[in-house]
Specification:
2 copies of one chain form a homodimer.
Chain A: H1 10-23, H2 36-43, H3 47-59, E1 63-66, E2 70-73, E3 79-85, H4 88-94, E4 99-110, H5 113-119, E5 126-136, E6 139-148, H6 166-173, E7 178-186, H7 190-196, E8 204-213, E9 216-226, E10 232-237
Helix pairs in contact in A: 1-3, 2-3
Chain A binds a DNA duplex (19 and 19 nucleotides) through helix 3.
Chain lengths: 238, 238
DNA sequence: CAGTGGTCTAGACCACTTG
DNA sequence: AAGTGGTCTAGACCACTGA
């Protein structure tokens, strides 16, 4: 026969079988799984199909594979979860709330030594600088303090950021290739506390993100969220 | 010919070509990419190879595919980054530092109504409760307040958590299948402030995580980190 | 209808590891 | 040498879309 019964999602059958065996503890972490040849025989499918199942489980971090040796249940010590850092506007809109943005500053500055180093530019090079406060149904939830590389977004200062967020605009003009970020708890700066309308002593969730496009640093942003008004959420499967 | 030159990682050539075209803006977000047939011809490879390249780009969130229509450059609005929440011990050890754990409490409690609901158990059901402080070279960096479902880890109370972290132990006895978490900034509770040796008013990074195994809630944990002593890091490619 | 992606096969050659 | 995974082919059938 050529194709026995058409697409029956055979690779999913194999994948599910292995996933359930791992989840149920039938195969313990570090233990060896059946070889591709064994699974090929057991399921009566081609090796490519078994290979895809195992490859995807590997990509999902559930299985480790060693050429010439075999496939093994991964040691799931780390919980690598997908944290979705979405555009504020989308996040607020998704809750059915009203998003407002207030531009408090939009200027051109000369890079300090530290800033120049981060942008891989010369000290004193021009940078755009913006400070924008985002509100959810009128409540200030984020203060966005951003530096932008003019080489990547020459028209940055001409945008109306009450209508389109900088995140959205920058993703349009400079396709994202890499991002690095840190998340920590801090007190707001005096200016941030004033702009967010919160006491100086209240904790804030601070996300700092550096975004690259084609190896160039496009923008570095500090996002300050009042502790009681904003929270990151995520989940992890498998 | 059967195989022209052995593994030359053809699917990577196709993948790289598309990835660079997207990153360089040659294909804009929403724009249509060449069909599998066109790529098959252009690269002189089989369709399976092209298919793998496109499928992986789709799995990475860079390409959207619609059956019967075509493949398109994804709208990269969301920045879905892989945040690695590792075991404290590993994280501290990875820096070459000394990890110490201090067990402040290890008891059995009756579930409150809210706790019972979260664990999908009856109010008053038994739960294990532990409070452990983790130190990095003697500095308290995390207060771990944890509830555990006895059905998943009956021997929880018999463990020596100065030697093996609860995270590590629980992953051994109850393979992880799903986790949900939130990250926010808060002040520590009076007890947490005391255990961590920090002022009440200092901000903390608080991670709350609910872990499931085989559809059962295994554990709910609150991880409190002094603001200046701990930070989450992550990065995102493509 | 033609074109697209989704899946699958039954082989193949190769690099690698272990006995 | 035998077994493993890594890659690849040249076909195939199918479901879906849009003109």
């Amino acid at each position: 026969m050529v194709v026995p019964s058409g697409p029956a999602f055979q690779y999913l059958k194999v994948k599910t079988h292995l996933r359930e065996g791992i989840a149920s503890g039938r195969w313990r972490p570090g233990e060896r799984l059946p070889s591709e040849a064994e699974l090929t025989e057991a399921f009566g499918v081609s090796r490519m199909t078994v290979n895809r199942a195992l490859r995807e489980l590997h990509q999902e971090g559930m299985v480790e594979r060693v050429q010439g040796v075999g496939s093994f249940v991964a040691q799931l010590h780390r919980i690598a979860s997908t944290l979705t850092v979405r555009d504020v506007h989308d996040e607020i809109a998704a809750r059915g709330h009203q998003h407002e943005a207030q531009v408090h500053l939009l200027e051109e500055v000369a890079a300090t030594e530290a800033q120049a180093a981060e942008f891989q530019l010369q000290p004193g090079a021009r940078l755009f600088h913006s400070i924008i406060v985002h509100r959810d149904n009128g409540v200030a939830v984020q203060c966005e303090d951003r530096l932008v590389n003019p080489a990547c977004a020459p028209d940055y200062q001409a945008q109306d950021f009450t209508q389109v967020t900088p995140t959205h605009y920058l993703l349009e003009v400079a396709p994202l290739s890499e991002a690095r970020y840190t998340i920590e708890a801090q007190r707001p700066s005096p200016l941030e506390a004033k702009l967010l309308g919160m006491p100086r002593g209240e904790p804030c969730l601070v996300v700092r993100r550096c975004t690259l496009s084609l190896g160039q640093v496009v923008t570095v942003v500090r996002l300050v969220h009042p502790g009681g008004r904003w929270m990151l959420q995520g989940s992890f499967q498998a």
